[in-house]
Amino acid sequence: MEKIAPKENLRPKGLKGISDKQIEYHFDTHYKGYVTKINEVWEKLESSDRSKGNQNYSDFRELKVEESFNWMGTVLHEYYFENLSADTEDMPSSLKKAIEKDFGSYDKWLADFKAVGTSFRGWAILAFDLTLGKLMNYGADAHNMYGIWNAIPILVLDVYEHAYYTDYGPKRAPYLDAFVSNINWKVVEKRYNKALKAHAALQ
Ligand code: FE
């Protein structure tokens, strides 16, 4: 399998309330670490002995488990960095309407999204659930834990300690506020429109 490379173009800079140092640790150590390891896992999987597969323990099983961790660690971090920007604009009206339709109001959505960000150990994700045909806020304790099948990430928030300890120590609440103030809504809208197309195509 061909190796994948970290997407340097996704590195955000000059954010409000999230320092470049914080982003540097997060991007260079954590995100790049997942990219390195998924490449390693995929390489080892090529020659892993399928005949020894075993649900209690087997090399093949361990590689497949870590594939889910490191691949989703890669993908979710790419969504996260991409949906942060120093140049923010107001939320596009089509997206605002969709959030109002599916959550009642922007404030209700935000309160729910922050509650998810406070209640989970890894991620808060605004997703378009292709089965329900609507936006939902979902949480994950790790990249590969509690993910919802058939849901497309629209807005991804990393709530691991490594995402904010450099700037805020153990205080997650001000980090959540800083995150919200740096959301690149244009990127979010683009993902939403793609999800709508996927949903229509699947009908
Ligand atoms: Fe992270």
Describe this structure in words.
The mean pLDDT is 97. This protein has 203 residues and is mainly α. It has seven helices and three strands; from the N terminus they run ααααβββααα. The chain starts with 19 loop residues before the first helix and ends with a helix. The chain is globular, with a radius of gyration of 18 Å. Helix 1 runs antiparallel to helix 2 (59-82). It has a three-stranded antiparallel sheet. Residues 26, 30, 77, 158, 160, 162-163 line the site of fe (iii) ion.
What descriptive keywords fit this protein?
mainly alpha; about 200 residues; globular; 3 strands; binds fe (iii) ion; three-stranded antiparallel beta sheet
Give the CA-CA distance, first to last residue.
Answer: 33 Å
What sequence of helices (H) and strands (E) makes up the elements? HHHHEEEHHH
Compute the number of strand runs: 3
Beta-strand share of residues: 5-15%
* Number of helices, counting only DSSP H or I runs of 4 residues or more: 7
Global morphology: globular
Unreliably modeled segments? none
What is the average of the pLDDT values? 97
User: Sheet with the most strands?
Assistant: 3 strands, antiparallel
List ligands, each type once.
Answer: fe (iii) ion
Structural class: mainly alpha
Percent helix among the residues? 40-55%
How are the secondary structure elements laid out?
Elements: H1 20-47, H2 59-82, H3 93-103, H4 106-119, E1 123-129, E2 134-140, E3 151-158, H5 165-168, H6 172-181, H7 185-201
Antiparallel strand pairs: 1-2, 1-3
Helix pairs in contact: 1-2
Bound molecules: fe (iii) ion.
The site of fe (iii) ion has 7 residues, from α1.
